[in-house]
Amino acid sequence: MSRTSRVKRGTTVVASLGIALLDGTATTAQADPLGGLIINHGTGRCLSTGGQYGPQAVSCDEQDGSQKWRVDRRDDGTVRIVAAWADPYRPCLASYIYGGVSMGSCDDGTTGPIWFIRDGGKLEQLGSEKWCLTVKDGNLGTDPCDSGYNRYQDWILPVS
């Protein structure tokens, strides 16, 4: 993946849910009580639960419930990325070391559904390796986290 320079400090980006200010802190969109879109900086595509092979990055559609997410912050500084469906079973975005991303139980007893938010918008999986959620050709996976800005690893997160 190619590296790009960070958007100049103070530059505003208009997202489909509102205006986000890129200032080195976590970039977020407007609050939605049911959840919001998680948008990739590099592709402008949204994280979706749906897909034959699991979560993927697709064209953003605010009406598509499979693209609504909640970022549940935990006391230890980690987060869970929870599908914001009306269904009582709300699975989490889960990662497994060396590339795999899927939907799984938020309480499966592993580190898979637990993430850190790093460098303003990277989603780094909990574990001994530093692997971040990455978009490649619309597909999701994890790759070693790049230091600094990597548009395919940086995400606009919903307010939670």
TrEMBL record:
InterPro entries in the record: Ricin_B-like_lectins, Ricin_B_lectin
Keyword Signal: yes
Superkingdom classification of source: Bacteria
UniProt keyword annotations, A-Z: Signal
Signal peptide boundaries: 1-31
Domain Ricin B lectin: residue ranges: 35-158
Protein name: Ricin B lectin domain-containing protein
Species per Swiss-Prot/TrEMBL record: Streptomyces atratus
